Amino acid sequence: MAGSFLIMLREGFEAALIVGIILAVLAQLGRTEYVRHVAWGVGAAAVASVLFALFADGVADLFSGAGQEVLNGFVLAVAALMITYVVVWVRNTRQGLRAELSRRVHDTVASRGIGVFVLVFLTVFREGFETVLFLWGIAISGGGGNPAAMLTGGVLGLASAVGIAWALFAGGRRIPMTLFFNATMVLLVLLAAGMLSGAAGLWVAVDWLPALAYNVWDLRAILPEDGGLGALFGILFGYNANPTLMEVLVYGGYLGAVLAWLGSGLLRRKPVSA
Fold it and tell me: What proportions of the chain, in percent to the nearest 5, are helix, strand and coil?
């Protein structure tokens, strides 16, 4: 539940923020007649995301045995890479997001409603595509709980995202969002590290990767990962009660590299004192 809440909060907020900026720019241009094209674009993107989820589920059913382990490993690895892309994109463009979208809206208004529809559809469907991959990865890693728990977490996350986006626009941008972005980026990096480590564990199980060593630590008797606090830590921090050395190296290497990169960016943005 915690994982689906985090994913829907992050992806839902980004989609709501983008749609809100597009609507605000259209209002500034006096082209409110294109609002319906925005609604159509959001609706079409939602339908396309559901169809992609059904297609992905159908593909998964074609695999069995060791093939399922291989496929699950690829899904986790791709989801981790997509999360990394989201983190990179947010860090590099969040300051200029409004300006970039404003330019795109100005360009597409000239092509009338179809341009606005395509812009909204592509930007929102990207979020839906990512969400399907991320939720699939959470379900594979065993941290999503039962379908009802994942659905509840997802609905709560989406509702929270829409509420935060509405408060941001209604408050005239007086709400500081730096802490929100930084906190969710760190949580997403931890989530991606756990997914990538999980992919390594699946590939170790089918002898695609060497284990190097088994049971680097074993905390199953103290903090099992299949429920309660252990499951929550598994989602938020990639906790593994009894990992192989390969999983530890993959987790630590990815986490160290990405957090070092994020930290170097924050240091470069600090003003240099005389």
Answer: 80, 0, 20
